[in-house]
Amino acid sequence: MDAAAARIRLKDGRTRLVSAELQLSGASPHEWKHAAEVAVSAGIAASDAICGHVLGYKVASESHPDAVAALRAASNAATAKHLDTLLAAKSA
User: Phi, psi (5° rounding) for residue 67?
Assistant: First the structure.
């Protein structure tokens, strides 16, 4: 993953975060559920961007532990814990 790809993934994450925030302002539980789903996607995109920038790759598999380990290597344990929490919400 080169720098340009990491920037694209970061932009994607930011766009998804804005979308999640807009959905949260809605009045229905359906909108809130959608906001949570999009927020998880935003966090994954941000993790991909960090890993791409620091490590030169993002985890392409569906292995959540691999993605958390890669983010830990690229950043720190606290940041990786946030991704772990998001991925648990995705699975739920």
Answer: -65, -40
